[in-house]
Design a protein that fits this description.
The protein has 16 helices and 13 strands. The strands form 3 sheets. Strands 6-10-9-13-7-8 form a 6-stranded mixed sheet, covered by helices on one side. Strands 1, 4, 5, 11 and 12 form a 5-stranded parallel sheet that branches. Strands 2-3 form a two-stranded antiparallel sheet. The longest helix has 24 residues. The protein is globular. The model has no long low-confidence stretch (mean pLDDT 96).
Length: 453
């Protein structure tokens, strides 16, 4: 009798907050809606990010173990959130860094942290330059915080097109994670016939290689949709035992390959959206970690052990949070936050205005900065190094590398101001500005402030 192929479980959390700093002050002002906390970063850190770094496993009323959940799952943390944490929640920040190192020891040298484009811009709606810069800034931020190269990159809102996958592959990214509804067709490697799975029929328990026009390829993991929805919206986190059991129910005897049951949700699910969700996660991970029939893993380790045997094509211009593809970020598509009688007709004009501003400032930026620096757009790609270290010494080094001549005084100030202009032109596309119903909500006001700056 042949031995049953191994079975694996992976839980992915997308931990992210938009940049909230006042663009003129570089500080977060009081947000009354986050009461009793100063702002939403502070509140969600208290309810979710901090508890997941020090989560409790209980036996009745007795704490039997305190664990770092991040070290046992796959996760990505947005660069703008980590930047805030570094200064305002340093213990949580260190816990997340420690978790990546611990996960590498646990998962065969593969750290669990994934990278993310810098400020959660919807890449299929970005122009070619912004797509590249967002990925390069995200990679630079990741290297500084985790001290290694990332294997995977999370796409904002899992919004995908082939052009975005090409940029990821060009920069050495091996894999990303998408919703099952984003798969179009699949086939075995070496087969000629494709199977249509555009109705959500992709098997999520195996990885898929997506061939790209450049000749490169990107590995895609399509997560388990029903279990992910149950975690996010159906109170599966009410009991850790139920959560573990539901993950184990994702396996079947009918599959002859090493099955990977994996889910993906907003990381804020574990504690902010669902109180004590971090404890349900901690218990479920403990139950799975001690189970003989399955092995906890992350995507990097699974991929190293079991390279894809199948290929896939993705449904372009789709996402995990809009039934209409990516229309939520450019049109009145009907996706809303449940306010009866409201519409989102403002989305299209807002994006059109931002696109006009970006394009109108491109030529004068290039012309003026071209008088000071060798390559304005290359300098923009590298400008993240100044964001990560704003010291005078680093600024002088940056200007010495990129400058046509030694830049001092007003010339140096002008160069940095022009690069800051480009930073705000990208920050104004942060996805949360279009996500909700109210044009006057804090997220939309925030992106308009970046445009004004």
């Amino acid at each position: 009798m042949s031995e049953r192929p191994p079975r694996y479980v992976c839980v992915h959390g997308h931990f992210y907050q938009p940049p909230r700093e006042n663009p003129w002050l570089e500080a977060i002002e009081r947000q009354d809606s986050a009461h009793p906390y100063h702002d939403w970063n502070e509140r969600i850190t208290a309810e979710c990010y901090g508890p997941n770094a020090l989560s409790r496993i209980l036996d009745g009323d007795r704490i039997v173990r305190i664990v770092n959940n991040y070290a046992r799952i796959s996760f990505n943390c947005g660069p703008t959130l980590l930047s805030w944490m570094e200064s305002d929640a340093p213990e949580v920040y260190r816990g997340i860094q420690d978790a990546d190192r611990e996960s590498a020891q646990r998962f065969g040298g593969h750290g669990s942290a994934m990278a993310q484009p810098y400020n959660h811009m919807i890449l299929p709606l970005a122009n070619a330059r912004d797509r590249v810069t967002q990925v390069r800034w995200g990679l630079a931020d990741f290297r500084r915080r985790f001290g290694r190269e990332p294997e995977g990159m999370w796409l904002p809102e899992t919004a995908v097109d082939v052009a975005s996958l090409e940029v990821l592959a060009e920069h050495g990214i091996r894999f990303t994670v998408l919703a099952p509804s984003q798969a179009a067709r699949v086939r075995g490697k070496g087969d000629t016939e494709w199977e249509d799975v555009a109705n959500g029929g992709v098997d999520p328990t195996r990885p898929y290689e997506v061939p790209l026009p450049s000749g490169r390829a990107m590995v895609v993991f399509f997560y388990d949709g029903p279990i992910s929805r149950a975690v996010a919206f159906e109170r599966l986190l009410h009991r850790g035992e139920d959560f573990a059991a539901r993950l184990l129910d994702g396996f079947t005897e009918a599959r002859a390959w090493p099955q990977l049951v994996h889910i993906a949700t907003d990381g804020e699910t574990y504690g902010h959206h669902h109180r004590f969700g971090d404890m349900a996660l901690a218990y479920a991970l403990h139950r799975l970690e001690t189970a003989a029939e399955v092995e906890l893993t992350n995507y990097g380790q699974y991929l190293a052990r079991h390279p894809p045997a199948c290929q896939a094509e993705v449904r372009e211009n789709t996402s995990w949070s809009c039934a209409h593809g990516i229309e939520r970020w450019r049109s009145d598509c009907g996706c809303n936050s449940g306010r009866e009688g409201w519409n989102q007709a403002w989305r299209g004009p807002l994006r059109a205005a931002f696109d006009w501003l970006r394009d109108a400032l491109g030529a004068p930026f290039e012309a003026r900065l071209g008088e000071l620096l060798h390559d304005p757009w290359r300098a923009r790609d590298d400008y993240v190094e100044l964001l990560l270290d704003r010291s005078a010494e680093n600024r002088e080094r940056f200007l010495a590398v990129h400058g046509r001549r030694e830049l001092e005084g007003e010339a140096a100030v002008c160069a940095v101001k022009l690069l800051e202009m480009q930073r705000h032109l990208m920050l104004m596309y942060t996805s949360c500005g279009w996500f909700f119903d109210d044009l006057s909500g804090i997220e939309t006001v925030q992106v308009m402030q970046y445009a004004a700056r």
